[in-house]
Amino acid sequence: MELSASAPLEDVPPRARRVWKRNQFYFETHFVLFLAFCVFFYALIGWTILGVRPMSRRDASIILGIVTAITFATRWYCRRRYLLFNPDSFYVGRLFLPAKKYRYTDIEEFCVFPKNPEQIKTTFYEPSQWQIEVKVPSKIPPNLAQRMPWLRRHIVAVHDERVVCLTSQVAFYLEQERWADLRSPADREKLAEYFTNGNVVCTSLGYKPVSEEQP
Fold first, then answer.
1. Membrane-crossing residues (predicted)?
2. What's the pTM value of the predicted model, to 2 decimals?
């Protein structure tokens, strides 16, 4: 992929997409909603199948209403919490405020680590087995930030094509010891190379096993 010096920053690469922060509870609520619909439908038809009598329509309606409300609240929560990476900046979604924009130079810390440290070999750099954690600045009190680290720390999968802008910037930093400046044609050209191999650079240079960190 080539970067034109005159191309708008937001168009390179052209398909920046949001990374939704969906947890296990998100999928569990949707499964429970499906079960609630089944119970409600079973109550509507009023049949007794295999000796199982249907619940009253009133109780089934109450259960369906409660589960539906919880599911929609979970969907709203997850849709407000997202990450969006562009070549020169990224956005962090917030619950009750507009998304916060950060420059890559704002990143205080980043860490590349395997999903399963005990199962992966230090010489094996398969991007699908790795993650990146970035820490952004915040006005949150330190004691609150320690209790809720997810307010400042964000983890994404290295192989996710939606985070190619992040992996390319991290790869640039690991090799150049600074963040890429897209106002520089040389940096733009170098960053373009990392769009294809940045994830491998991240895993090979960004991770230091404990055995290597100890003197």
1. 25-49, 61-78
2. 0.73
